[in-house]
Specification:
This protein is an alpha+beta fold. The protein folds into 3 domains: 310 residues, Beta-galactosidase, Chain A, domain 5; 148 residues, no CATH class; 49 residues, no CATH class. It is built from 13 helices and 20 strands. Helix 4 packs across helix 8, helix 6 packs across helix 11 and helix 9 runs antiparallel to helix 10.
Length: 623
């Protein structure tokens, strides 16, 4: 009985599958016949296409037309191509759009972007080979804004389709025209119609792209349009390994997939409400933001060989079609221009920790504002260093003063350590009493510096990543403030002058801050460590730190040699020098160990020599 039921079930399954396939084929033939009849009478293929551009100006339209939903598709019947399969014999045609800021190349294969070159920026991978090569935000043999369509169990790769366009093969936006529109259209084997429209603006790195899909009549529970960017590859010879990444705003927060995440996996999916996604290198970015809709899924893809992270996002489609518009940005990570877009895309720019980010933004705006009046970023950086030094002068003055007082009281501290070397609790109590008596705060030299750290961190981030410094010269051999200042190379090792000068300056500074011989060795290591750390940093950042070091040396010299040097701790009293029995109760004012200590008084002479002089005067009076 069980075997009969199994046989009946198998037969029914075959009957259902055969019947469904027969019905599906009949529906396809019916729609193809209807489509052929529509083309015969000259009716439009796609009702969602916007008004055609007037004759003689197919590549341009008013900047106000991207926002309207037109129904006229008068040229669609001329543009649509019905493909039963991908025909590799059909030649690929291209359209070039030439704007003052960039040059784009579009392909009839999928209507995608195959090249996007920035006219004002050049590659710096190899000074000899790439001296004239423009930065391109689309990798070789790749396609940006490529489309695919999830429709039922299958995925249609729309980049395999051949689209047609009535736009001219060359569109010039350098002659005063403000906008240009390129339209593509194609019809697939199942009657699915896809229309693409790119709207470019002459004075912007941003543009709009729209995708109209219709003819999704077959029942399907999964309908999504995928669109993405293959990645932005590094443009610098030595680019931070953490720079290649894809940053996105998802579910109200910011997420980042760096290149290091793709060591073992090629693709990472994320599901949520996605407002925008980017692919970026150190200085450049390509971003996509849907207009009026929210993406439901994003997949980031890492290319470890090409050192880039690409992405593609999915937009759900309801019903038998949809018209989806996207805002696209492809250009430098210019904070002002990106923030003007108004979708929060500027948050993708690496401006440091969230705590210091507002300060970094403020300092970047100050840097750009000062550049309007001072035509040299090197001088602007020097002025910023001077201004920040003046703003924190009181804090650093207090820090250096407390540091000097700690140096002056160091002999007494050493004496206490010698006296109470086996009594830690008594030593701590004696030290606190000494600090209280001399009015010295052991943390007084640290707290002012800690308060300045957020500013230093913010400046570090701004000067390290801002594209405004890329290729900006200063003077002499310093021709690029975003790169180390290489003056020569010895046996292939580059010689950078600024870090060496900074290390020498810090070494001089240590003479004012360290008087304890036991700490001299450690203190001398700090300039060496900083020199090594800063050796390959951008010269703009090293200039800031060098100027700050020079100003700090001057301030410390003033404290140690100027009128402020009069501030000193009190000298030991006479009892401390005459000797105190070891049975004397604990006292920080007259410990016996001070007999061997040459504490310095306010006049700079040792207390022992002063007392000896007074005793000699008393002997002469007695005679």
């Amino acid at each position: 009985m069980g075997e009969k039921r199994a046989i009946v079930a198998v037969v029914l399954i075959f009957v259902v599958l055969f019947g469904f396939n027969y019905w599906q084929n009949q529906q396809r033939q019916k729609r193809a016949a209807e489509q052929a009849g529509m083309e015969a009478v000259g009716e439009p293929v796609a009702s969602q296409m916007e008004d055609a551009t007037p004759a003689g100006d197919e590549g341009a339209r008013s900047s106000t037309t991207p926002g309207k939903d037109a129904a006229d598709a008068g040229h669609a019947e001329d543009m649509a191509v019905t493909l039963d399969s991908v025909d590799e014999t059909i030649p690929e045609t291209t359209i070039t759009v030439d704007a003052p800021l960039w040059t784009a190349t579009l392909s009839s294969r999928g209507g995608s972007v195959t090249s996007w070159e920035l006219k004002d920026y050049r590659l710096r991978l190899d000074p000899e080979d790439d001296a004239r090569a423009l930065v391109s935000l689309v990798p070789d043999s790749a396609r940006a804004l490529a489309l695919s369509l999830d429709y039922g169990p299958n995925t249609l790769q729309l980049d395999d389709w051949v689209f047609e366009s009535k736009s001219p093969s060359y569109i010039d936006l350098t002659d005063g025209r403000e906008t240009a529109v390129v339209r593509y259209s194609a019809v697939g084997p199942d009657g699915i119609t896809v229309i693409r429209e790119h709207t470019f603006y002459a004075d912007s790195f941003g543009f709009e792209t729209r995708v109209d899909v219709s003819g999704l009549w077959e029942p399907s529970g999964r309908r999504s349009l995928w669109i993405g960017w293959p990645g932005v590859r590094p443009t610098e010879a030595k680019e931070d390994g953490k720079a290649p990444a894809s940053v996105m705003r998802i579910d109200g927060g910011i997420a980042k997939d760096g290149l290091g995440r793709f060591k073992e996996r090629i693709e990472f999916p994320r599901v949520g409400a996605i407002e925008w996604v980017t692919t970026q290198s150190r200085y450049f970015m390509a971003a996509l933001a849907p207009d009026g809709v929210t993406c439901s899924e994003v997949r980031t893809t890492g290319d470890t060989e090409g050192r880039s992270v690409g992405f593609k996002v999915a937009v759900p489609i309801e019903g038998d079609g949809a018209s989806i518009r996207f805002m696209v940005f492809a250009g430098p990570q210019d904070y002002g221009e990106i923030s003007a877009i108004g979708v929060g895309l500027e948050r993708a720019i690496d401006m440091g920790w969230s705590v210091t980010r507002p300060l970094s933004v403020l300092l970047l705006k100050a840097l750009v504002w000062a550049r309007k009046y001072i035509p040299n970023y090197g001088i602007v950086i020097i002025l910023i260093s001077v201004v920040t030094k003046l703003l924190f002068y009181r804090l650093t003055h207090k820090s250096f003063t407390e540091m000097k007082r700690m140096q002056d009281v160091q002999p007494k501290l050493n004496a206490l350590k010698e006296q109470y070397k086996d009594k830690k609790e008594e030593l701590a109590k004696a030290q606190m009493e000494l600090y209280k008596k001399e009015g010295v705060n052991p943390l007084g030299s640290c707290l002012p510096m800690i308060l300045q750290m957020p500013v230093f961190i913010a400046l570090f981030q701004v000067l390290r990543t801002t594209i405004e410094l890329r290729g900006a010269p200063f003077m002499l051999w310093m021709t690029d403030l975003s790169q180390p200042d290489t003056i020569a190379a010895i046996a292939g090792f580059p010689i950078h002058v600024l870090p060496l000068l900074m290390g020498l300056g810090m070494l001089m500074q240590q003479k004012f801050t360290t008087s304890d011989p036991s700490q001299a060795g450690v203190a001398k290591m700090m300039p060496i460590l900083f020199t090594v750390l800063f050796y390959n940093f951008a010269s703009g950042l090293v200039i800031y730190w060098l100027v700050n070091t020079i100003l700090s040396i001057g301030q410390q010299y003033y404290i140690h040699r100027g009128p402020s040097a009069a501030v000193a701790v009190s000298p030991p009293d006479a009892a401390a020098l005459e000797g105190v029995p070891e049975s004397t109760p604990t006292s920080v004012t007259a410990p016996p160990a001070f007999e061997a200590t040459k504490a310095v008084d306010k006049t700079g002479r040792s207390s022992q020599s002063s007392n000896s002089k007074r005793r000699g005067q008393r002997r002469r009076k007695k005679r």
